[in-house]
UniProtKB/TrEMBL annotation:
GO terms for molecular function: thioredoxin-disulfide reductase (NADPH) activity. GO terms for cellular component: nucleus. PANTHER family: NUCLEOREDOXIN (PTHR46472). It comes from the Eukaryota. Residues 162-358 form the Thioredoxin domain. SUPFAM superfamilies: Thioredoxin-like (SSF52833). Signal peptide: none annotated. This is Nucleoredoxin-like. One of its GO terms (biological process) is negative regulation of protein ubiquitination. Pfam families: Thioredoxin_8.
Length: 496
């Protein structure tokens, strides 16, 4: 769906065998840079020195981390640019080179402030005769690093991870210490502050703007009483940036109303706060007339702008989900809600067991998963969580580098899902070759092209799930080839 650009800037007894976490030669967990970016990077300024041979790659860890494990730089910029989309990317690349030089100038003996890792993509592959030559021409003489041109899998993962839009140059700034996102709006920030005077543009905490005055009731709310932020201290909050003039906003608002009501009916303390980008107070009043939540007063323009900066809002509609302490859970609540309109995964935090939605189904192509298929009643969902969670907790507890706030891109990350009776599950069943039995416990490994099903008639309990996962990870269970893989194999071996 299109977007409008805003006018505002477990049990200790469970013991699950598993693949070892990624580690260095010394047996220590690898750093986040290595896990995210892979083993090798290219130095852009050197690609043309190896024109007649493969570009010599660099060790990603050595390029970004010192021998004693400290980050080489304060900020890493993930820069996604596109070849052949017009001059947009080329123009911004020049601006980024200037920012890079300015931020790193006069740094003395201190560590480098800013490093860029360039991900080169193509908007129109039909016009490319030689991808390697095109890659070299695009990055030649740039002062930073790049994901190697032939590392297609890594590029795909990074593009999916950061939800990059085709043809749109994107700069995402990450903390050098832990990989957390500082801002997704690096392009806009660079254009507004080309010398990087306020780099890296860390946003203020949203609490300051939320506390700065009353929250008024919208027209569809049961109570006409204004509220103070302090009264919402026990609530999860959805901060909704939207406007009456924006068609995607007007299409999304009824969806948000429906999910908001469903979430509250399930007993969650959830409140939505509307932040307007309307052009007039009349439009603002008309738009909020049927909304059942709270709103920032239209007259408090600076408060609204401050909140947009604090939550890194680049476009509308945007729904940001905050926890009761006003820490950000997700900046992409809109996508979470669209893919989970019942709010079954609310508040959309990083969880050990999730309901299988279209978003998560995409991740099955990257890593194996334990999936329990059920019909979808609330009691069955609760049952699924009760039998899967102890094993998921034990599996994660054994990972020395596990961080619940970090989306680990390693292949050996085992996922745990509950699949309901829905279109996403139907598509997956057909792809894998599963019948429509429920409940059905499976282990699906699309990267390896195999799946395992718990034996027919076996009772699904905490212990049997643990034994099943243990057997799967130790390759002790009979495997089946995924239906789509079988079809491909038959096609490839048809005699001429």
């Amino acid at each position: 769906m299109a977007a409008c650009i805003s006018e505002q800037a477990p049990s200790a007894s469970v013991n699950v065998a598993r693949k070892p976490a990624s580690s260095t030669a010394a047996g220590k967990p690898t750093c986040w840079q290595h896990r995210l970016l892979g083993k090798q990077l290219a130095r852009c300024s050197q690609v043309n020195n190896a024109r007649d041979a493969k570009t010599k790659p660099l060790d990603a860890t050595a390029s970004l981390v010192t021998e004693d494990g400290r980050p080489v730089c304060e900020i890493i910029g993930m820069y996604f640019s596109f070849v052949n989309p017009g001059a947009t990317c080329d123009d911004f690349t020049r601006q980024l080179v200037e920012l890079y030089a300015s931020v790193n100038a006069d740094n003395g003996e201190r560590r480098k402030r800013f490093e860029v890792v360039h991900v080169v993509l193509w908007s129109n592959v039909t016009d490319v005769l030689d991808f390697e030559e095109s890659f070299r021409a695009h990055v030649a003489d740039l002062p930073w690093l790049a994901v190697p041109n032939n590392d297609y899998e890594r590029k795909t993962r990074l593009t999916r991870r950061y939800r990059i839009k085709a043809g749109v140059p994107t700069l995402i700034l990450l903390e050098g210490s832990n990989g957390s996102v500082v801002t997704r709006g690096g392009v806009e920030r660079t254009v507004a502050d080309p010398a990087g005077a306020e780099f890296p543009w860390r946003p203020p905490h949203p609490k300051a703007a939320l506390e700065d005055g009353p929250l008024l009731p919208c027209g569809g709310r049961d109570s006409n009483e204004p509220m103070l932020h302090e009264e919402l201290r026990h609530c999860f909050k959805g901060v909704y940036f939207s406007a009456h003039w924006c068609p995607p906003c007007k299409a999304f608002t009824p969806q948000l109303v429906d999910t908001y009501q469903r979430i509250r009916e399930r007993g969650h303390d959830f409140e939505v706060i509307f932040v307007s980008s309307d052009r007039s107070e009349d439009s603002y009043n008309a738009y909020t007339e049927t909304m059942p939540w709270l709103k920032i007063p239209f007259s408090q323009e600076e408060r609204r702008r401050k909140l947009a900066r604090a939550l890194d809002v680049q476009a509308i509609p945007t729904l940001v989900i905050l926890d009761p302490r006003d820490n950000i859970i997700t900046l992409d609540g809109r996508t979470e809600l669209i893919e989970d309109p019942e709010g079954l995964n609310f508040p959309w935090t990083s969880r050990l067991v999730n309901i299988l939605t279209e978003k998560y189904a995409t991740s099955l192509h990257d890593a194996p998963a334990i999936i329990l298929f059920v019909e979808g009643e609330d009691c069955e969902i609760q049952f699924g969580e009760s039998v899967l969670l102890p094993t998921a907790q034990a599996y994660r507890r054994d990972r020395p580098d596990y961080d619940p706030n970090y989306d680990d891109p390693d292949d050996d990350t085992l996922q745990f899902y509950i699949a309901l009776d829905c279109e996403t599950s139907d598509i997956l069943r057909e792809f894998i070759g599963l019948d429509d039995a429920v409940p059905l416990l499976t282990a699906i490994d699309i990267p390896r092209g195999i799946y395992v099903v718990m034996e027919d008639g076996a009772e699904i309990t905490v212990d049997s799930v643990q034994q099943f996962v243990d057997g799967f990870l130790n390759n002790k269970l009979p495997t089946n080839k995924i239906a789509a893989v079988r079809k491909t194999s038959k096609t490839e071996h048809v005699p001429a």
